[in-house]
DNA sequence: AGGCGGTGGTTCACATGTCAACCAACGGCT
DNA sequence: AGCCGTTGGTTGACATGTGAACCACCGCCT
């Protein structure tokens, strides 16, 4: 592996375009949520998962799994959300170590206002611009990349075709 | 606008797939850079732009434009990079308010080691998995979305087709 | 029973990003 | 020259993310 395969024109353009879209999208969606509902994107994700769970309650480790968050991040964030009365932590009855996160009434009200606006934003920023074919491609690419990342992160370096 | 157009199955899948890919990709690339070169993704972007600029020097506001960063973020980040001897700030001769950021020798060494590895990571995580058609689609979608975001952020709410 | 590695969670110190306030210099205008 | 709105940049207070250390409890094993 002596020489570097730089990105050619096409590859550059696709990559940059994707990155810029990425930044722009998350910045836009986060700002909309924040200014219109006082929720960060992180808050939204947490509330969304909780509101879909039975009784609006989840064990932190389960929530962490859904969000793919580090446990310390989750703990910190839940602490802040608890102060703002969006969630409460209760002791877990079946496991004395753990706790259960529960969405509050206020949390539920907020997510129910935020969700339709958020979906509308996602639609108007991207989904409604896509043809069915583009949608399929995005899904396929996303899945391929995720699978590849799991492979890479599990210590498999991938096969060098020149080998 | 009384009723909400939720995302249907296809739309959900495409959207989630994109978001997950997005998170996974940036996390992966950032971690690779960090562990292998001691550079964050932000550091990398800054050094990359500087190293491509004539004499490795840029006015902060120009750099900020390229990166699409808030000026305070840039200022804070440059401060940290200066402490690590990756860049230096010099007074600007033509504008007494401003300064010029210059990449240091060490900064240049680092980016020259990091760049090939970074490109290899980008390739192996995504670019090399894509067909030419997929690449074109990604570019097209990215461009559409960016254009749309600019429209949205310039106060244009978009047209409601039911109107 | 009692030892013990693994798990669920929290906490601390620290890196990073954001917003608003601030300051000095620029440059156009009279 | 002198005023004044704008621009380039920094700063401080604060919100958020990360990694490591820590703690209590679980559950298995003998």
| Number of individual domains of chain A | 1
CATH topology of chain A: Arc Repressor Mutant, subunit A
Mean pLDDT of chain A: 93
Could you say which overall geometry of chain A the principal axes of the C-alpha atoms support? globular
The quaternary state of the protein chains shown equals: homodimer
Radius of gyration of chain A using CA atoms only: 20 Å
Percent in strands of chain A = 5-15%
Indicate the structural class of chain A: mainly alpha
**Reported CATH architecture of chain A:** Orthogonal Bundle
Most extensive interface, chain pair and sizes? A-B, 52 and 52 residues
Strand order of the largest sheet of chain A: 1-3-2
Q: Tell me how many strands of chain A there are.
A: 3
Low-confidence stretches of chain A: none
Q: Tell me the name of the CATH homologous superfamily of chain A.
A: Winged helix-like DNA-binding domain superfamily/Winged helix DNA-binding domain
Q: What key attributes describe this structure?
A:
HTH_MarR-typ (chains A, B); homodimer; 163 residues; MarR family winged helix-turn-helix transcriptional regulator (chains A, B); globular; 6 helices; DNA-binding; Arc Repressor Mutant, subunit A
What's this model, at a glance?
Two copies of one chain form a homodimer. Chain A has 163 residues and is mostly helical. The first copy, chain A, has helices spanning 9-37, 41-52, 60-67, 71-83, 105-125, 132-153; strands at residues 57-58, 87-91, 99-103.
